[in-house]
Amino acid sequence: MTDSYLYAAARTPFGRFSGALAHVRPDDLAAQLISKTLDRTPGLDPAEIDDVVWGNANGAGEDNRNVGRMAVLLAGLPTSVPATTVNRLCGSSLDAALIASRGIESGDMDIVLTGGVESMTRAPWVLPKPERAFPAGDTTAVSTTLGWRLINKRMPKDWTVSLGEANEQLADRFTISRDRQDAFAVRSHHLADKAWNAGFYDDLVVPVTQEDGTALQRDEGIRPGSTTEKLASLVPAFRADGVITAGNASPLSDGASAVLLGSGAAATRIGSDPIARVAGRGVSALDPQLFGFAPVEAANRALKHAGITWSDVSAIELNEAFAVQALACVDAWDVDPQIVNSKGGAIALGHPLGASGGRLLGTLARRLQESRQRWGVAAICIGVGQALAVVLENVTGSNR
User: Fold this and answer.
1) Can you tell me the distance from the alpha carbon of 282 to that of 68, in angstroms, rounded to the nearest whole number?
2) Number of domains in the chain
3) Which of 23, 161, 316, 352 has the fewest CB atoms in 10 Å of its CB?
4) For residue 263, what is the domain's CATH number?
């Protein structure tokens, strides 16, 4: 067995729903990012890439027919470079990195490009196929943008509640107030704006060129003027007396992320030294409606596999699907909240489902470089009751 390392990471700016990236197909979005990510490793011959493992949560529209392979071809890589698309909903691009790291550690592969893409704006409506020709009744078009669709009637109703209702239940279970959620959301916006202004994202985010020749440079969803007073005025979105609003949940988004992984021996062919080592992985699952709490066990398992404890961790990137689920996880880990998402999180940056895991991993590696700390954790909750987590070890020189 050998170790697997992170060599490079990049992402597009995350666009708002129906925003600046609305006119960019997801396969084109992924192709642009693949090209620009490989530009960062000019010593690497793309033909040397053993596989591309790409995440995508929808696959019902322009991202159909293995969007990873489509993106590789559109990016102009040699046709000899294979690609697959994986779907673990919100965790798809983090799952892609897990799959690649296992392949590298087993010796099956040496250099793997991973990542993911989602255009929630361009997700289509679908029509269920009738059981017989020319049915007399009406047929309803179903949105594939987010959440359950075409539900199997054998599924228990407790499992198939909306994502928002599931997190209202988490708020009840753990007594997490609206005020705490709103404060957490405001923090996300302020930290994201501060990180952008300080130049933290300059090396992580690559502009996306649009049809009119203009380029989106920065995440569209950040609201630096956000306050708890403003969020308090928003109407609950899922229950009349609920605590979850559009302000303390992640928005619908468009975007892509990429992470280049390789073995230690691959450094000479990649043409650069690694940034971080994949030190531990964790996968967990529980009742579908409790999906927001699933990262707790996934991260604990990843730490165990890495041979460390929470006291060793100096940086956490936890996807903020909803403020309440992020708070529930942080409370359960009993860690310093200040080390969680210190450069902003999904509530501000956005949450294009298939791309968020790669964003977490790239941001975590960059944070460890900046702070010169050794250990970090990336974790993400996943609809239908799952979660993934990865432990990274900084190998660029750390204050151990």
Assistant:
1) 24
2) 1
3) 23
4) 3.40.47.10
